[in-house]
Amino acid sequence: MTGNKVSSQTYSIRSHGSIPAIRLDRNQVRISFTTNTREDSLVRHNAEAIDPSYDRTDQEMGDSGSSEAVPPSPDPRLATLETELAVMRDRWMRSEAETANLRARAKRELEDVRNYAVQKFAADVVEAAESMRRGLDSIPPAADSEAPIVTKLREGFLGVEKSFLALLERNGIVKEDPVGFAFDPKRHEAMSEAVSSIQSPGTILQALSSAWTLHGRLLRPAIVVVAKSSAASPREDPQM
Fold it and tell me: How confident is the model at residue 104, as a pLDDT?
């Protein structure tokens, strides 16, 4: 291993055998790796430990500087799978929506069956309740001179009617008294009209039978008498 003076502050040592060539330039160590990989790594490690500002060779700088991440080209199979996934997701969401609608419709139909399966029977029971009311209305009004048996009979019938109506309400059958309310063609049937100076036109004056509902659905409309406006008085002739 021989040393030659190249220039001021620059010396070089030629490689000999397995020893790498070393060039000393301004107190910095530069190494040309001519040995195997293991020896190169050891020399590089020692050089960097001696001088932290160790300058790599041009080849190393070129390799590290010129490496740039190249975006991979899109895989056509991946695009196909993404399209199929979107189609399957759309089908799944539509199927879930149809299933939810089917469940809601089935639940609603089941509730209707439970609530209105006795609709015909309820209509017959309502007719019996109306007959009881007509019988009570046929009893003369209470008077001081009436016989005690009549008073007890009236009170007994009223008690039976009250208990019977409570029983119907517990099963969803409700009686509605329309007197004093506005006429509703969906819930009332007008039998006649009567002139009234107290109620406004279209107001129900009298109910011949009450309205009945089963769980909110109309079971039997009320038969009523509706108020109407009085006939206008004839105007006087302005020429007279």
Answer: 94
Contact present, 227 and 190 (Cβ < 8 Å):
no
The DSSP secondary structure of 126-175, one letter per residue, reads HHHHHHHHHHHHHSPPP-TTS-HHHHHHHHHHHHHHHHHHHHHHHTTEEE
User: Which two tokens mark 77?
Assistant: 């199979």
Locate all alpha helices (DSSP H) within the chain, ordered by sequence. Answer: 37-50, 58-66, 76-116, 119-138, 148-170
Domain carrying residue 97: 77-117
70 assigned to some structural domain: no
Q: Please, which residues bridge with residue 189 across strands?
A: 223
Q: Report how far apart, in Å, the C-alpha atoms of 196 and of each of 111, 205, 206, 232 are.
A: 44, 8, 11, 13
Residues 6+ apart with CB under 8 A from 178: 187, 188, 204, 207, 210, 211, 222, 224
pLDDT tens for residues 107-121?
999 888 888 888 889
Does 209 share its domain with 184? Answer: yes
For residues 43 and 124, membership in a common domain is answered with no
Could you report the per-residue pLDDT of 22-70, keeping only the tens digit for each?
A: 554 544 444 444 444 445 554 455 545 545 554 554 444 444 444 556 6
